[in-house]
Amino acid sequence: MTQSILVWLPLREWNGRFQALGGGGYATGFGETYLTYAVARGFASASTYGGVPVANGKDTMPTDLSWALSSKNNVNWSLLEDYASKATNDMTVIGQQITKSYYEKPANYSYFAGCSGGGRQGLLMAQKYPDVFDGILAVAPALNIQRFIPAGFWASQVMHKIRVYPSPCEVASFVKAAVEACDRLDGVEDGIISSPDRCQLNASDFVGKSYTCNGIPKTFSASTAKVIQAAWSGSRSVSKRDGWYGVNKDAALGTAYVPTACSANNTCYSSGSDLFGNWLKYLVAKDSSFSTGNMTQEEFFDGLRSSNVDYSGILGTNEPDLSNFKAKGGKMITWHGMADEAIPPLGTIAYYEEVLKNDPKAHDFYRFFEAPGVGHCYGGLGPIPNGAMSQLLEWVENGHAPAVLHATKGSNNTARDLCPYPLQQKYIGGDPRNATSFTCAK
């Protein structure tokens, strides 16, 4: 399929830089959605649809994966390769060439920015094409997509197995109860779990306790607790070999991990997660008519195993050896919202630990920051480091490595400094809306 590549150039006040932009979900780019912002900041910029027919970048989380099949049992490997890597590199090469042709000189610096699938694209470039970019901002990267995506269906698998479909209100109330229980562990009550690893409670701890839906008092059920715990523990709790991590306890569960809805007579059912279900349908079963609601547990874990075997090489983006990117002088920043409701942050942490194991001095060129209370790419109660790209430029061009990422939340006038891993935010007293009230510590 023909690739569509967009290259936007500022007619005046070009800042001498090129910036390639990533996509998300099952799309390689969002087109004008982010090009507008990049060009407004003076960047020559590029985005690609990669030949993948997904809403032409208008969908914020494209989940259509029907393009991955040529026919039943036949994966469209050519298009999958475009999605995995080729389209991103082609966009960059063409974008840089057009920039050079128009301005009659090459860009002084080249950057990449993306979140989710776009974050995966950024790490892909550092791993596979290490000499292309001077700086990469890879946010909440969809690393090991062949593992965490199908594994994300685990809580739904449990729902189908025990035939229990909790109401969206009960699901949200479990999350609220968990946040209330763990909020104070960081020393300040602000609705944010700053140290998710210290929040060791189980969903079963809330069974029998009260919550309210639409003014009606209810109690948490043991059956729903099993579903919630499946989302929190992940399928890795059953099989470390084939499973994957769960999400943190402050992540919203209703969109992807425990998607339910209720009819007018209060009969609740699974509303399905296309993000996870479509992977199982098109890339695991390789059958557009496959029903994810009828899988046995054995079939589910067999599917996780085959997904990893079939697609790790082309889509895993999990190579921890970044020595070539380092040798070329590249710099990279990754941050991940700890309340991410789509991609488990523990997967990113595990990858960064592998990078450090491979190169204990990787901190010199690649830094990872946890963003407590932030959802997938944005959202949530936590402050967001909207200036991360500016800090990356400062690192690349002036050698000033970011000791912290400055983050803000306008709705409640809060500022926090995100800490470089493995450090975490620690409250030291004062107004919790001020960054100076926190320090970074182990």
UniProtKB/TrEMBL annotation:
Pfam families reported for this sequence: Tannase
Record flagged with keyword Disulfide bond: yes
Enzyme Commission designation: 3.1.1.-
Root EC class: hydrolase
SUPFAM superfamilies listed in its UniProt record: alpha/beta-Hydrolases
PANTHER family in alphabetical order: CARBOXYLIC ESTER HYDROLASE, FERULOYL ESTERASE B-RELATED
Protein known as: Carboxylic ester hydrolase
